[in-house]
Amino acid sequence: MESTLQKPAFVAPLINPKTVAALYWTATALFCLQMTFTAYAQLTLPQVAQAFTHLGFPAYFRIELSCAKLLGVALLLAPIPPRLKEWAYAGFAINLASALIAHLSVGDGPDAWSWAAGSFALWGISYLSWRRRQAARPVLSGTPRV
Asked: Domains in the chain: how many in total?
């Protein structure tokens, strides 16, 4: 099975690896802080519960989503196989796209959906710099990239 992590064509090939690492860790730290804060807010703040009701989601979805976000943050920060990290990034992309769609579908203004859009931008920087770092890593002899 061929990996999706080989030769990402959409990432600039001539960026200093130290710059990519600094960009990755900065964006990933900010993104993980944002996701952890939103998970905490979804579990504890009554105004966030009201926002979920406004969007038409059932009450249990807040708890489910918060647990998924915390698991995703742990996966992004842990030294795990690239395939699992890619799935965590995919889950966050679905979550953030769904948040934007939900806010736009009920007619919310930028004050409601701007956090999701900003988080999506951080997600993009983190994901693209992670892909760049993966592409730059040497392949161990006989070990395929997963």
From this structure: 1
Distance from CA of residue 85 to its chain's centroid? 10
* Residue 53 within a domain: yes
Read off the pLDDT of residues 53-75 as tens digits, 9 standing for 90 and up: 999 999 899 999 999 999 999 99
Residue 56, phi-psi category: left (phi > 0), alpha (psi -120 to 50), beta (remainder): left
With residue 23 as reference, give the H or E element that holds it.
Answer: helix 17-44
Query: DSSP E strands: which ranges in the chain?
Result: none
CA distance 71 to 142: 32
**Which residues, 6 or more positions from 128, have their beta carbon under 8 angstroms from its beta carbon?**
10, 11
